[in-house]
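DATA SHEET
Item: assembly model
Revision: 1
Owner: S.N.
Input lines:
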Amino acid sequence: MHKGIYAGVSAMMVQQGATDCAANNLANVDTAGFRARKPITKSFPEVLMERVDPAKGQGEIPPWPWRSHPIGSASMNQVLSETYMSTDEGSLQVTDSPLDVALNDGNGFFVLQDGEGNQFYSRSGHFLVNEGGQLVNPDGYLLVGDGGPIEVGEAAAVSFTDDGQIIADGVAVAQMDIVGFDSPTALRQMGKNLLAETEDSGAPVPFEAPQVAVGVLERSNVNVVEEMVRLIEAQRAYEAASKGIQTSDDMTGQLITSLAKP
Amino acid sequence: MIRSLWTGATGMIAQQTNLDVTSNNLANVNTVGFKKVKTNFADLLYQINREPGAPVEGGTTVPTGIQVGLGARVTGTSRITTPGSYEITDAPLDIAIEGNAYFQVVLPNGDIAYSANGEWQRDGDGQVVTSDGYLLEPAIVIPEDGTDITISSTGQVYVTQPGDDEPQEIGQIELVRFVNPAGLRAIGRNLFRETAASGDPQVGNPGDDGFPTLQQGILERSNVQVVEEMVNLIVAQRAYEANSKTIQTADRLLEVANGLKR
């Protein structure tokens, strides 16, 4: 069928993906340590459009491509090529809670692990002590320090220092692990405020001297204005693409009716 | 249907819970010994439409793939146990705990609950009870003719009776600590029950290792900061509005898609 219809459909699907992306960012506008994802679209490789030469179509059919003349190139389709994680820093909220920590370095991540030792990374610095005396995030993932879960036992007072040590009843029990990545935008977002390394993010590189802010929580880095503009942009682009489809449809309709006339 | 329609809904639902928690904090701004509660959010699942690191032609790989998040959810509500402000009341049975510990209270069914509310009363039999009439555990009975009730910082209760030259010790107030007090279950009336997450109660006398001391004639008010809660209200309202815009946009996209077929 008409190329314009498929071009329009691809554009509409791209805008739908962009809306999904903005929707997730806006839903997480208040999620501590959340990192917004941004869409990148690309056009399909340009294709050469050709016109069939009617004169050469007569009589004996000559071999391809002699029947056609190039009339220029066009890209017919647009696709959502990737979504990447923004590494902008979120705004900071002072909570005064001794177990709320924010990373001073925008490229650092807390290290968390599940019960089976699988490691995850997070920017969300809200921690609690669980019934086993270990530091955990609100979902129960263990905070890692000195290569393993941080144990504070039955300490009455637990707090962090500015250089990431954990102090339980006045005694330093562990040094929190903070890591960076060569390409943090390529981390995989797992949900539950967790990130996982991928082939492209590279392996985690431990920070030598991490700096943290205690009693402070990093909020999400979602920029509401930007997301709202993206929503408007997506809606209008979607509408415009739909007009493209309708126009193609109209043209096809006219073609059919005019050809069908006796 | 469009994912963002539901993604927006998850954000609105999460903010609704946030609003509920904030309003409870504000309702208890004047409740003795109340500890504020904070809502924790996390991102929901991600749909991986294109695997990060997938090979593309030319031997390179996709750096980040297409990961579309599906919204936010409330992962938990955590009780912030920072100290509240202290109010001097000079009432002999007003006791403030100078740290993180709880009194034991006997519920009418005989179970033990825990309370940080230090506003004690004397009932008709001279027993020390909460404002709701629940007995303090271990029980302390103040003799009918007893005067000058004195409570030491380590919890000994002294009373002077007619004919006595010196105050007599009539009881000892005990405190209870939990490894994870944030894991206690709030049952209203300023009372908490232990849970699997809170750990077992550790009973001790005030001033013992790890146990805070007491202050007579002082009440610990709630630790709710009105400014903080008001800002939280504003954030919740705006986040709710932003998510409603997502839904409107998704709805508009569907309307346009429906309009394609004429």
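QC remark: DSSP finds two helices and 20 strands in chain B.
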